[in-house]
Structures are given as structure tokens and as C-alpha cells.
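sry for the spam today, last one i promise. C-alpha cells for design, 288 residues
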């Protein structure tokens, strides 16, 4: 039995759907399993056991992991993320789970300039010290997050950032889900640490040039200082302060650490990752 924690999120949901497409059953955890089930397509629901569990409730987690052999662990970035993921790991260990696939982040290091990445490092270290088989996925920026820019692009034709000419790796969450399903169903992939990117890194000027070409109208990039971007995200975009700080940190990470595509996805799956241009074409109506 494979348990998916974070099944209502982007990467958990993508992995759930990819497993179902292969005919592989799984148990999907949610605080509201009826709501989870209502959001699944027919094929995925037929291969999924929705199960009630709360990351803040260790007893519910132990019930959810009963009989499970593998855990796909992904949770949304949040101030309580470290404690909740550690709760899941301890419950999984108590129940004899043999393999944990942990969705982490780039620069998951003890002295990382990104606070959330330091938290991921703590979680990775707990898994490694446990002795359980551990696979770590380190995806870069989700293409799907670009959809959050759609309203300002549609209304004003502008993208705000604090990256200058630095390039950023983008990856489609569907590729993360496909890779996660591969790791869960192909034992030879277990135990590795895999950076996941698309096939090309883009700077913000290159991103707006691509969008402008696809839309047939100009799109501008407004480069801000880190403090200005934080103020914009909080004051204009309505982000919580901690999330705005995270966005600024990951953009500054791209400035100080050059990002280049990695071939881990292609090497493991035998196909190229989805391209940013294809993703934008698919969702172009959102930017008009």
C-alpha cells in the first residue's frame, strides 16, 4: 500500500493521478476525504482510497499508515510544516513503513539562505537518521505558480520580481507527479536525491518576452529591490508576510546561485520534461 500525504496539494495530487493512470492503487490522506474524493476524476477515484487524517493528530496518522509500505510525503510550505512532516515520519516509522519519498526543495542545507529550505534539511536529516529507505525529490519553481501572475499580466501587462537577469528553473508539477510515481513503482530508483527541473531556465525578461510573443502584445518586467518586492507582495498581492519573504528568498537564491537545467528527469523517465512554452500555451486564456 502506497500512502499519499498532501493528496489535495499540487504535487501530491499529481502523483496520485499518475499512479492511478498506471493502475497502481493508493491511499490518499485528507482532513476531509469526501471533499478530496469529489475533486478526483473517475479513473483516479477508482484506484484511490480516500482516508481521513490530520497532520496535527499523530493517532489519525498511525491509523492511516496501518498496512502501508511506502509514503509519499509532501506538504504545502507553511510555518508549521516541519512539525507536521515530522509527525508523519514518526507515525510512518511506528507503523513499519519501509520507504519514504520526501518532496523537499533546492538548497535544503543547514545554512541555506531560504528559511523553508532549512526546514526541509531538518526533515531530510530525520529521515536519514531513521534508517528507513529514503528518496528525496528537489523540484525547482512550479510552472503552475506562474498562474498567480495572470491577473496582473491580464490587467496591466506587467510582472514584478527581484531577480534582475538571473535565470530560474521551472518544472511542471505533472512531471513531479510522474517522477514520484516512477520512484514509488520502480525500486531501482529508490534511495536517490533528485533535482527536478524543466529543460530550460528562464530569466524574468525572457519569461515576459515569451509571454508577449504568445499573447501578441507587450508584457513588461519590473525589476524591484528585495524590500520593494516584499512590500508589493504583501500590500498589493495580499500575501502573508512569511510567504512574501519566502518568494523574495528564492528569487535572491537564483541571483547568487546560477540555475541550470538538470537531466535527472529525462535520465529516469526516458522522456523530456514538459516545456514552459507548452505550459503557457495550455493556459494562455488565463493571461489574456
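last one done:
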Amino acid at each position: 500500500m502506497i500512502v499519499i500525504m498532501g493528496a489535495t496539494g499540487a504535487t501530491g495530487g499529481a502523483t496520485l493521478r499518475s499512479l492511478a493512470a498506471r493502475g497502481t492503487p493508493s491511499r490518499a490522506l485528507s482532513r476531509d476525504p469526501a471533499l478530496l474524493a469529489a475533486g478526483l476524476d473517475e479513473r483516479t477515484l477508482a484506484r484511490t482510497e480516500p482516508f481521513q487524517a490530520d497532520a496535527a493528530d499523530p493517532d489519525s496518522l498511525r491509523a492511516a499508515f496501518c498496512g502501508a509500505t511506502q509514503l509519499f510525503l509532501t506538504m504545502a510550505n507553511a510555518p508549521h510544516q516541519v512539525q507536521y512532516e515530522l509527525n508523519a515520519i514518526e507515525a510512518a516509522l511506528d507503523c513499519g513503513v519501509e520507504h519514504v519519498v520526501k518532496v523537499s526543495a533546492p538548497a535544503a542545507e543547514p545554512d541555506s539562505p531560504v528559511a523553508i529550505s532549512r526546514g526541509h534539511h531538518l526533515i531530510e536529516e530525520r529521515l536519514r537518521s531513521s534508517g528507513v529507505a529514503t528518496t528525496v525529490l528537489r523540484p525547482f519553481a512550479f510552472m503552475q505558480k506562474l498562474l498567480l501572475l495572470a491577473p496582473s499580466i491580464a490587467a496591466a501587462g506587467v510582472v514584478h520580481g527581484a531577480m534582475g537577469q538571473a535565470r530560474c528553473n521551472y518544472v511542471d508539477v505533472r512531471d513531479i507527479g510522474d517522477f514520484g510515481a516512477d520512484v514509488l513503482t520502480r525500486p531501482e530508483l529508490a534511495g536517490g536525491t533528485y533535482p527536478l527541473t524543466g529543460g530550460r531556465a528562464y530569466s524574468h525578461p525572457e519569461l515576459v518576452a515569451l509571454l508577449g510573443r504568445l499573447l501578441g502584445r507587450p508584457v513588461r518586467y519590473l525589476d524591484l529591490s528585495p524590500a520593494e518586492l516584499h512590500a508589493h507582495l504583501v500590500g498589493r498581492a495580499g500575501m502573508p508576510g512569511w510567504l512574501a519573504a519566502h518568494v523574495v528568498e528564492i528569487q535572491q537564491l537564483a541571483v547568487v546561485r546560477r540555475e541550470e537545467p538538470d537531466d535527472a528527469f529525462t535520465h529516469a523517465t526516458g522522456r523530456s520534461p514538459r516545456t514552459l512554452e507548452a505550459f503557457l500555451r495550455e493556459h494562455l486564456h488565463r493571461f489574456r
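The radius of gyration is 19 Å. ok im logging off now
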